[in-house]
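Notes from hallway chat w/ T.B., transcribed later so I don't forget. T.B. wanted the structure written out for a chain they're using in a teaching module, and asked if we could keep both sequence and structure tokens in one place. Agreed to drop them here.
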Amino acid sequence: MAEEKRDYYDVLGVDKSVSDDELKKAYRKAAKKYHPDLNPGDAEAEKHFKEVNEAYEILSDKEKRARYDQFGHAGVDPNFGAGGAGGGFGGGFGDFGDLGDIFGSFFGGGFGGGRRANPNAPRRGNDASASVNLSFEEAAKGCKKTVKVTKIDSCDTCHGSGCKPGTGAKTCSTCHGTGQVTATQRTPFGVMQTQQVCGQCHGRGKNY
């Protein structure tokens, strides 16, 4: 079982109404207390130091702080509560993701009144992040660091279209761009409809 995380506000010893300046002061105080340079060989202090940095990283970012205030650790850590096996709620409540597709295959559209997900629509990726080690002086006085962050970018050749230069994708004539086909079957209980991945475009909705 994964170790339960402490509340980020408790980690820094502040309440939820803390201002940005007070938050920074609390962070510097805690970072100084647990900094490895002042606690050599102390594994417990090192653990608290990492905890302090993680808490400040979330609470000093307005967007992340808002998500944390609303959803707790599940709003900022996709692995929280999922045992590291794929990522929590995948973006908060209300977004059923693949679960809706599973129900859609049985009930002809899943949640949301038969709405189908666009197979070619952009999907939000994971947040980009980087770890930076700071000396005690840098943490106390502040500093600027240059970091390298790996991110996914558009292909220079196809610019994200998946097509060779000078060509374009065509809407699949079988599924008409939905990526799915509906099969109707008569049973003793009546007519049943099921949705399957289009065998022509393999669920992409387009032929390249």
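Follow-up for T.B.: Residues 179 and 203 are 4 Å apart (CA to CA). Might be a good example for the class.
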